[in-house]
Structures are given as C-alpha cells and as structure tokens.
Amino acid sequence: MRPLTQEMLSSQPDLAPAWNVSQFAPERILQIGEGVFLRGFADWLIDRLNAAGSSVGRIVIAAPRPTGARNIERFRKQDGLYTVLLRGMENGRTVDRQEVVSSISRAIDPHLQWNDFLACARQREIDVVISNTTELGIQYAPQQYRAGQVPTTYPAKLAAYLYERYQAFGGDPKAGMTILPCELIDDNGTLLREIVIRHSQEWGLPAAFVEWVRLHNVFCNTLVDRIVTPFTPEADGAPELPYTDELAVVAEPFHMWAIEGGDHLRSRWPFAELGLSVYFVPCIEDYRLQKVRVLNGAHTAMACLGLLAEKQTVLDVMSDPVLHAFVERLIGSEIVPTVTPQVGDAEVLRRFAKDVIDRFNNPFLRHALTSIANNSLAKARIRLVPTIVEYADRHRVSPPLAAAAIALLCYACHPSCAQEAMDDPLRSRLQEIWVSETEADLAGTVTELLKASDVWGCDLAVLPGMADMVQDVMRLVQERGVVQAIAFWLQSQPVSEPMRR
After folding, report:
1. Closest CA to 41 of 189, 232, 183
2. Which of 34, 362, 433, 447 is buried deepest, with most CB atoms within 10 A?
3. Quick one: pLDDT at residue 411?
4. CATH number of the domain at 6-253, out of 3.40.50.720, 1.10.340.30, 3.40.228.10, 3.40.50.2300?
C-alpha cells in the first residue's frame, strides 16, 4: 500500500481531511513533543477547530529529545499527516471511526536543526507553546548556555527559545507567549516557569528578560485526560487502513483539557462551540478532584472487587451485571453526591461521571485490573477514603458501597487470600493484623483493620456504621462468594441521590 501523503490524498478525495490545509497555512503553535499522546489529543483538537472554520493555524512540532528523531522523519515522509482512530463508547453508543489529521505543518529536530528551532521564535504569529515531555520532562538540571549549543532539557530549550524571541522583538510585551504544558504533574505551568527563570538567572541573561518572562508570558497549569495508544495493524480486531501510516494512533472518544487561566485563548480557540471538552477556568482543582475521586476512586474499588471475582480487565467487570451495578451505584449514589458541594459546576461533574461509565465500557480497551491494583491501599487512601469520611460526616452514616470496597481491600490482604502477594508495606501491615487476630472474633479483627491510620490516613473505625458494614460484607463474602455477596449487598441498600442520566 502507498504511504499516507498529501499526494496520495489528492488522488483519493474521499480520504481527504475535513478542511482546506492551504486556507489555514499560517503557523501559530509550537509543540514540544512528537509522541502518541499529543497526536491523539492536542493536535486532534486543533484539527477539529480548523475543520469547523476557526482560523487557529497549524503546528510546528519539535522533538524534546534525540530519541524523537524517528518520529520527526515519519512526519516529514507523511507530509505531517496521520490518522486518529476513535474507538470506544460515547453517550452509550459505540464509536469506531477514522480521521486524517492535518494540523501539523512541519517537524523539526532541534538537536540537528537548532537554528530552525530558534527561527520559530522569530515568527510573531507563533505565540503558543504546547508540550508533553512525560512527567520527567519538567525537571531542573544544571546546564551551561552557549550560543549555538543545544540545551539538553525541555525547560532549558524553552528558556533559550524565549530569549531568542525577546531579542527578536526588542522585549515587546505583545510578543509574549502562552505556554500550555500537558505533562501529568501538579502545577505543571508554575513549575515550568520557575525552572525557565532559574536557568535564565544562572545563565546571566539580562534582568529585563527575566522580568519579560515573568510579566508577559503566561504559563498555564493544565490537566489532561484521554487514553491514546499506538495503532498496531496486527492487533486483534484492528481495522484496516487503505494506506500505510507509521504515526497512526487510537484514542478513546472521551477527552478533557482543563486550562487554568488562558482566557485570552477562549475566543481564539472556541472549543465550547463544537462541544469539545476544553475548559478555560480560573482554577483546575475542581477537575483534578473529579478525576481523582470519580475515575481513580472507582478504579481502585473495582480493581480489588474484580480480582476477587476472578476478572481480568475493567471490561470484564463492566460485563458482569452485578459488578457493573456496583460500580455505577458507587459513582452515582455515593461519590458524585459527596464531591458535588466541593466543585463549582455540578453539571460538569455529572457529565464527567457519565463519561467515566462509557470509558469503563470501552469494548476496544483491555485495561488490566492487576495494573490498577498496584499499591491499591495507598491509592485508596487518596482516592476513596476522603469520600467515605465526607459522606459519613454529612449523613451520619458511612457510605455502604464504599464501605464494601474497603471490606474487600481488607479481605484481599488475608493470608489465605488467593490474590498474588505484592511488595506493598501497607498490604503487609493489614496481613499482620489478620495474623495477630486469628483467635479473636471477626468484629475485633475488623476494628483493628479499620483503626490502622497508617494505612488509611485516619481511623475508619470511628465512622458511624463503618465497622458493622465491613464485617457484614466480609461474612457475606465468606458465605456466598464475592459476586453473590455484592448482589445481596446491593439489594439490601437503598438507592440514594442517584446520578441523573
């Protein structure tokens, strides 16, 4: 088959992108990072805007590391084109379609084309930087600055880039840039800004430049959420492409990009008009909270439940009617109502929760429970326990389904449990309690398990009804097995404050 190129598309109009590339030819965005995630996320989002007629412009891609050279060459061979295969669930319906993305104008390897990289800084129209250099990419590492020498780290490259821009436009405040780091670390924009300024000061660059960086460049904290994987044609169930594409990626329909500040981009990038989930907000903590409590909290609960029920993947759990009902009610009746008072937009939270159910039901994604279950007790402490404590404080009773999740997490630590042993000190701590309490009754053991504040971050035994609920669930599991125990537990608990659909 022929490779994906502009020439190939011109001979097959039915495969052409949804917008006229020449109409939006101006380059307006520099992207540091050529990997899978940004191809299926930011580049796709910008392509959607261009397809809808917004004059957003195109993206210059630069590799943050020498290892990105292979992808840079692939972009060149394919004229910046690649395919995004959207596969998953959206509003309860299966999505399985292919889109050719044409938002990339050209690709640069700064390690071989440093002058070309700096030349972008002298293009006034390029006033946005997007990056994803992995969680380790935004770190300080001492380096020297010499003209013509390529800095090794992303923050150092960005400092050199901004200094080039500062000189090119004489420190014009209007030449400042908006920087949108997509690296999955807290306060990514704030941290990147601090490192850029540190490099600038250590290099002895003019104080006026440092002030220009501080006052006239906007470093936004962001939060991104989407599962994107490489397209592997040989994988089971993979669709056939009518061309070869070495840059193709598979993305779930769900996407979320929360950008702190950046109000000046709202009118330029009208994502909301297209129903795209990009939010320009004063603070992204609401979005971080909903991700940790709803998505991650439900993941932690379902992983232990699923493994005890001898399931292997998230989809296996959601394909079981009983376990599916447990997960959906845990989210809709306990987690969402508890988190709602803490967020500014309850409707965004409810929509996110419904999207989570769709994501869990993705028939194209094999998300192993064992990977989610790693360090599950430490994760529960952050993702699940705060919901339990807040629910109990408001209702004067513990949440029954979240309590059942805690019961299963404790039960999985019993020495006789068939789950594979893990190198986890918190798990070992609960195992010690099980062993030391073998002669005591179950009630006493449960109390000691819940009192382990070094595991949970607080004393769960003092919460109203918590110990009784955990003990009841454990007895049900011993008598009926996990699935039947959960089925009985669901039937015995009233449904309260359900998630609106």
Report:
1. 183
2. 34
3. 95
4. 3.40.50.720
Closest CA to 210 of 196, 190, 221: 196
Q: Decide: 138 and 185 in contact? Cβ < 8 Å.
A: yes
Please tell me the class of the 285-492 domain. mainly alpha
CA distances from 115 to 163, 344, 350 (A): 14, 46, 48
For 300, the token pair is 């932690």
pLDDT score, position 262 = 85
Task: Classify 194 as helix, strand or coil.
Answer: helix
CB-based burial, 341-377: b 16+ in 10 Å, e otherwise: eebeeeebbbebbbbbbbbbbbebbebebeebbebbb
Phi, psi for residue 262 in degrees, rounded to 5: 65, 25
CA distance 92 to 311: 23
Give me the numbers of helices (H) and strands (E) for the chain, helices first please.
24, 13
Query: What is the model's pTM?
Result: 0.88
pLDDT digits (tens, 9 = 90+) for 394-405: 999 999 999 999
CA-based nearest residue to 280, from 358, 353, 228, 348:
348
| Token pair for 417 | 């449990």
* Contact criterion met (CB below 8 Å) for 256 and 226: yes
Question: Which residue stretches of the chain have pLDDT < 50?
Answer: 498, 500-501
What's the number of CA atoms in the CB half-sphere (13 Å) around residue 66? 5
Q: Tell me, rounded to whole angstroms, the distance of Cα 34 from its chain centroid.
A: 17
